[in-house]
Design goal:
This protein is α/β, with parallel strands linked by helices. The chain has two domains: 151 residues, Medium-chain alcohol dehydrogenases, catalytic domain (Quinone Oxidoreductase, Chain A, domain 1, Alpha-Beta Complex), CATH 3.90.180.10; 142 residues, NAD(P)-binding Rossmann-like Domain (Rossmann fold, 3-Layer(aba) Sandwich). The protein is 31% helix and 26% strand. The chain is built from eleven helices and 15 strands. The strands form three sheets. Strands 3, 4, 5, 6, 7, 14 and 15 form a seven-stranded mixed beta sheet that branches. Strands 10-9-8-11-12-13 form a six-stranded parallel beta sheet, with helices on both faces. Helix 7 links the parallel strand 11 and strand 12. Helix 3 crosses helix 4 and helix 9 crosses helix 10. It is globular and about 60 Å long.
Length: 324
């Protein structure tokens, strides 16, 4: 089989397409998948650089989300059969033509959903769903400020917030990205680079927002505190902007604000039943055609380095996918 291999920690240039042996037959609790589509995430860039929480040693095959057809199942697997189309989750290994993974990490692709959409769906929508509905306690009528709104988890957050009756103020860096946010349902879209707190307050009649959804960190988190209404929630999803913020606890106290962490790895490990229930609901919404990933970039497998670089350079609106 062909596989993209990270041969040393570094940038996308460390990724090389190689011929590798096919994986062995799947063991107990496993399925073997012929992968057709792979989501490309910022997590992949961090893992390739050796900067992610889980740190496989090179050489390794990156990639954690994919979709394809089941080739074989382990001796005790009854939920899947060869030929089934599945979404699959991987610790690593999705940037290959064939991979083994846990059957518990797979779901059948909903009818009517393409494999390329299935390959980029669960991570972004699972994150946004858990962040907004559980960590943020979002309800109809809430005002939600979404940063990084043109990215994968940003587009997912816009769609979910609108689905559940919230008003959305999106922030993004370019006119094209802001237009995409409005196209996905955002009520307003702002350029955050020259400050956004005053504009948010003006758009909300001075009240502020109930939730700030923040995968950026640093000064964006700090300014977001000024945008929150009494009892608002700052959802901390990551630090794409350069690192954690120095959040002043006295500001949280005076304004009754909560700073809430959103970590999907910990959520899955500590609340597996709720994680599974979320996933079932997201599959239902995908089957109904209510939630649809936006894919701006498609690359063949041999251009994995270009795909990761596009994510790093923030060229992607929604998701990038590796095909083949």
């Amino acid at each position: 089989m062909r596989a993209v291999v990270c041969e040393a920690f570094g940038g996308p240039e460390t990724l090389v397409l190689r011929d590798r042996p096919d994986p062995p037959p799947p063991g107990p609790g496993e399925v073997q998948v012929r992968i057709r589509a792979r989501g490309v995430q910022y997590v992949d860039a961090l893992q390739i650089a050796g900067k992610y929480q889980t740190r496989p040693e090179p050489p390794f095959i990156p990639g954690s989300e994919a979709a394809g057809e089941v080739l074989a199942v382990g001796p005790d697997v009854t939920a899947f059969a060869p030929g089934d189309q599945v979404m699959s989750r991987h610790a690593t290994g999705a940037f290959a033509e064939i991979a083994n993974t846990k059957a518990s990490g797979c779901d059948k692709v909903p009818k009517g959903m393409s494999l390329e959409a299935a390959g980029v769906y669960r991570s972004a929508y699972g994150t946004a769903y858990h962040a907004l509905l559980q960590r943020g306690r979002m309800k109809g009528g809430d005002r939600v400020l979404v940063h990084g709104a043109a990215g994968g988890i940003g587009i997912a957050a816009i769609q979910l917030a609108k689905l559940y009756g919230a008003k959305v103020i999106a922030t993004a860096s370019t006119e094209a990205k802001r237009a995409a946010c409005l196209n996905e349902g955002a009520d307003h879209a702002l350029d955050y680079r020259d400050g956004f707190a005053d504009a948010v307050k003006q758009l909300t009649g001075g009240r502020g927002v109930d939730i700030a959804y923040d995968p950026i960190g640093a000064n964006i988190s700090e300014e977001s505190l000024r945008c929150l209404a009494w009892g608002g929630r700052l959802l901390i999803l990551g630090f794409l902007g350069g690192g954690p913020a120095n959040i002043k606890s006295n500001y949280l106290l005076i304004n009754g604000i909560e700073a809430v962490g959103v970590y999907m790895g910990g959520f899955q490990a500590n609340q597996p039943e709720l994680y599974a229930a979320n996933n079932r609901d997201l599959l239902r919404l995908a089957a109904e055609g209510v939630l649809k990933p936006r894919i701006s970039h498609r690359f063949p497998l041999e251009r994995a380095a270009d795909a990761v670089q596009a994510v790093i350079d923030r060229e992607v609106i929604g998701k990038a996918v590796l095909l083949g």
